[in-house]
Structure formats: structure tokens, C-alpha cells
Design a protein that fits this description.
five-stranded antiparallel β-sheet; 89 residues; 25% helix; 2 helices; alpha+beta
Amino acid sequence: MNETAENEARILAHSPGRYPILVVELSPGNLRTFYYETGYDPEQTKPVTEDWLRENAIGRHSFVEVDPPYEVPVSSLRDYVRQEFLEGP
């Protein structure tokens, strides 16, 4: 199954805790925050900058950088969070 580039998400960082916030790059330079509370709905994101990611999210709020960035279809962000952060071993 091939997703178009506009449907791909590169997860750059996530917040720690029970309700993870994701910082996602949708296209080069287009960084957005996706929220647990909205079910990671792409229509309910907020734009952020690379500087905000480095200085505020990672620098002040202990977001965890995903290195290398993990690529997933935008429609699978909720499943990614459930599998990676919310389900126990």
C-alpha cells in the first residue's frame, strides 16, 4: 500500500506521560503538534517551528526526540501511540 507524501508523517518527538503529544513533520518545514485529546486528528493540530521544538519542547518540557524520525501514515498516528506508549508489555 503506497501512501502519498501528503499522508506521511515523520514523528520527530513526543511528550512523556500518559497523554502523549507528538511533534510531527508533515512536509519539509511543516511541523505540527498532534494531541492525544483530539485522537491525533490532523484537523486539530497546531503549527510549531524547529526552534520551538528544540528550545521549548525538548529543552524545557522534556519531550523525547525520536532519532531517527519514525515515519508512519498520518492515519496511523493513534495506533502508533497506542502500541508504543500506552500498551503494557
